[in-house]
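Sequence in, structure out. Go.
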Amino acid sequence: MATPEQHRGTVDEAGVRVFKNYSFLASSYAASRLLTFLSLVYIARRVGVESFGQVSFAYAIFMYSTLLTHLGLTTFGTREVARNPGQIRHQVSRILSLRMALTLISFVGLLVFTYLVRLDPQLKILIVLYGLSLFPTAALMDWPFKGVERMNIVGIIEIVRAVPYLALVLFLVKQPSQVLRVPIFFLLSTLLAAVLGLALFLRDYGSLRPQVEFDFWKRAMRESLPLGFGFLLLQVYYLTDTVVLGFLRGDAFVGWYSAAYRIVSFILVGGGLFFESTFPVISRYYQDAREQLPRLLNSSLRLTALLVIPMAAGGTVLARPMLTGLYGAPYAAAAVAFQFLIWGVAIELLGMNWGYALMACDRSKGYMRAVGLGAVLSVALNLALIPKFGLMGAGLTRLACSAIISLYFGFQFRHISRLRWLRYLLKPALASALMASVMVLVGHSHSGVSSVRGSSPNRDSENVIRDTVSKSPSLPAWILLIPLASLVLLLGALQPMRGNPTERIVWYSVLAIIGAAALTRACRIQKEFDLFEPLHLVLALFLIFYPVRALFAVWLDESWFDPGKAAIWKGLSAAVLGFVCFAIGYKMAQRKFNGGRRIWLDRSWNLERANTVSLWFLGIGIAGFVAMRFLGGSLLYFISLDPDIKAPGEMKAWFFYLLWICVFMQVGALIQLGSWFATGGRTVWTVVYCTLALLSTFFLARYFTVLFLVMLVPCWHYQKRKIRALHVVAASLLLFIYLGLAGLYREWISPTNNLVEVAGLAELAGRQKELALRYVVGNLEDLSNLSEVISMAPGELPYQFGSTFTPIFLKPIPRAVMPTKPPGASALFTRQISPASYEDGLVTTLGAWGEWYLNFSWLGLIFGMALTGALCSAAYQAMKASTGFSRVLLYSSFLVVLFSWLRSDFNAASTYGLYYFIPSIGALAYVTKAKPGALQAAQP
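Output:
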């Protein structure tokens, strides 16, 4: 008989296993869906609206054909394998044989349908080619590996299914005449995933052979049909609009609608991952602590409302530029469908709180009734509205069905518990209205659904609609000193002395939002809304991570956020000051280019000098790391802990030395990567440079992680330079592998360590006996034996450490489900060395407000942000006029600095604005001074 300690250990191990399994599954699904989404965006841009509509219609018919092959058999098979893992080979053989038989029937039915229905010949070929994928789809081996909890294999299968598809599409689909290649590539990628899964299964569990057992087939069909019926209803609900549009309005309408729907379906998948994580918690509360269930669901509802309502409001305002930016101008007509769909998805995500709760509370019949009602309404309303209203009818149908299903979910859940959910909608709605007003003020005029009529998409496609933009007055730069002076006076007037600090910080945040929007309108270059203009990007990041976050913290009544403390006011005020300085520097730099003369940043590149500069930077970086190893005694100490934690109150010279080393390596890699983009030569050297730069950021800087994809985005957006598919595939795969390794590098704190009983990190390390922690408060701190920590198994590691960039899809447990997430090593060090900072709420799970505060400099903030703004403005103007790869490099340079805003780290922004741009601009100045007769970069 197991002791209580053994039982608790078993439960803990099971919880860790479930969390790891879900992490693998969630991350692989998210990555797979992202890659598939990128593939579809590329296909839509290349093949045109009508051909993309044919691809989407054929894929919808293919998904209908999978209904017969599915029928809940995968869920049934997973359950059977989990119950009898010793008979896995026998179970898989029987279920796989049944699925292949059903697939043959489904494929024959698809051929009959294609023959009988009057469709375009090319569309019929697409349907048949997609139909061939029924066989490898039925042979996918993800479900048996789920049954034995080998989610890593499931994740590999998902990734293998998506990556080859993306690579083949990028390489071999260039024009509408090549649209027939799309289903062939889909077939090949699915076949590769199926072969991989079968090979892994044969290696681990033995061979498979066909088994025709009619008695088992009858039992399997009887038990799986209830499970598959829900899948059938969902497919009808999600696919009817596309199919009805294809039959009643034609391929172009399907193309427009699918372009809009792909975006919202990607959002819906992300929401599904969130609710998958809440499902087991709700189920456990329903069984063991039912009185706590309303509180959990209220938290989930509140968090969902805070996310989806602003998302829907922003999507309504930015529908047209978002669609044209992703797909191109011919897809502007899809804006009206997107405006309805984004609100439908928002309502659907809100309703999922009740829907998943119904299933977790043993009310699956109520869930199925709601989905069945939605499927019936979807068919009826689509048939009624699409013939008359077109895209608007399809979008309106989805919105109406989402609202009815969500309300039905809520009505059914009232029998379990009553939730007061309306109160959670008011504050996000007010915040969203404010956000939409700011967007309109910034310059986007198509903010209403009425701007596009559902009956006129043909006219929209023929006469490309350009966004109407308002002209902003050109103000002298010195006028911008007035709001800066006003801000300083306002800062003094709003210090927390008398009155209610919560109300004061709300008004202060609202005033900051409105003032930042007005300042952006006055300082921008284009005098119209350009999503990739630096000032617009900075405005978005500033609003999201500073005043908007302060408002949400007040409305959520977060315990760590106390508006009465001076540190909070100082942080918010510094954020506002930083944005104002950035905008002023951005505006002042524009005056230098009004004459139209050619600046040195736009000259041709001397590639010989570029190679020389990058080689020097590489040598300096390697030499610096070697020197640091001997001078510092322990290099791992500097690369594994946040710099602010090592020396609170000031930045030590050792950190800046290491910072310069990493900067040299990154700038060298940036120059070499640009040379490779321009000429395609020195590929091996480019790989070496970028690998070393990635390693340096893996340890410290992080910003280089976004460089590869960032360099591709503006080229795609402005369409001034053609990037080859090889560049896209290589950069995407390299970045994905890096992010995966960086994410897995971090570990969670063991739940067996009670941080309340353990006084600090030193005692915690001492209990582990493998660690020896010593640090000296002086010019050099040192943490020895970190190499032993890194080599330890994850289960033995007592805390998370390192300063790596962890992708969001590798953090699937939301804060609403795990509100008491233990802090990592950085927070532990901060708590031990500078407890006042931690108590002020400067280190939190919502973001580190205080990392920059520990070494904050007002002068550095003002000068650094103004300089960064001026350089960003100069780079953006040079890029708009340039035709070569130097434009891409410059764009990447300032986006690296902007990325520091994502970390809520203004001091890093000012620091990197100085320390990153000094070697970057110096190197660019040297490389662009081309001598006559020197080797020049080819300009397209």
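Check: The chain has a mean pLDDT of 66. The two ends are 76 Å apart (CA to CA).
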